[in-house]
Amino acid sequence: MAHADMTDSRRQTKAGRPTPGDALALPHVIEAIATSLDNQKDFSSFLHVVPRSLWTPAVTAFLDCTAAMPYSLVASWPRIVLNNIELPPSVLALLAATLPLRPRIQLKCFADANPLASLVTVLGPALNSVMSIDLHNTTVTPRLGRLLAAWLSTAPATKLRLASLDQMDHDGAIAFCDALQANTTLQELAISHVPSLGGFHGRTLPVSLRSLEWNGPLFRVVNVATLTDLATAVGPTQLERLACNVFGLLATYPAAASMLSQLQSLVVSWWSADSMPALIAGLSSVPALTSLDLCKSNLSTSMELFMRTLATTCMHLKTLSVDDDLTRDGSAALLSGVLQLPRLATLDLSMHLLDVLHVLPELVAAGRQLRHLALSTIECDNYDLEKRAICKALAQVHDVPFVLQTLPEDMDKFVVDALSPRADRRHQCDLDFE
């Protein structure tokens, strides 16, 4: 009897206090568990085994987001991506309801900046990444500069791309540059063909910035005042990557020297043949460079000097890309120069496919050092036949260094044996035809 009384007493005690399961069955606890998960699959799976009555309003709003406008808004925990910013008030309210979860809200490309005002007002700091604003051939709202300044001032911004803005009022441009200078979180900034911003009007860029793309108008001379401002803007930064179509000229300004001296990745495009001496001279200012990408830079006639300069100024270079439709002589000079860059492991170049057969010795010699070689070849009527001919020629080279992950169909067995990956190779260079 005493034992029975003790058992009843224990049952009464348990009934009188919440069990661990009861303690977890609270909306704020369910929200905390859900938001601790790091992907949409786990986030959704957990919530859908819990009664909907235990979802907080913020959780409910997040799960309802994609259904609201499936092509304009994608919610995948912990992110919400907006592919369209012209959103009705009901959807803006839904987004606002998700803010207690602290989602990462990103904007993709949009062409009309007017709705940005509503987004900045509603979302504020949660709008942490405007990925692309391209206003080519559209009417720009006169308040764009101020809207972007407001966003930079209220949100922990990390990425921003502005392209093809032919019009922005001067006061708005100054407000935007002031906000850039005051920002402490921006990591990636791309400004392409936005003449009103100049070189940021004497303001400096955030020290948090790691990647900058700045391209002035094509086929126009960038004036001294703009270059001076640009050098001032980048001077205090610790950029890891710079994409700039006036790099050679920028390198002549002492204010940019500190940034350039520790730069690791450089992209230069649309460089005229007349300006090639400035580009080559500028290489001495980037001794820490490990990656260099040149596009439409008219390098063929200066390739030998270019490669010699790289060998003496950029000795840490590991990756080189030349998308320039090189001539046969230019290709030969580039491939020969590889041997002067002992750390170079990856090379991408663009050339006529048939020219490959005429630079085969240089190609093979470069392949004995490289780990990856990509040939971006210019399409022609006989592309398949020429590619097969190159594979056959390479297969006949003694101890050929190249391997192809995908060979043309029905190749001869000796070609397959020579160019297929094998574990017993002393060295192999992956060769891609792109």
TrEMBL record:
SUPFAM superfamilies: RNI-like. It comes from the Eukaryota. Residues 1-23 are annotated as: Disordered. Residues 1-11 have a biased composition (Basic and acidic residues). Gene3D superfamilies: Ribonuclease Inhibitor. This is RNI-like protein. It comes from Saprolegnia parasitica (strain CBS 223.65).
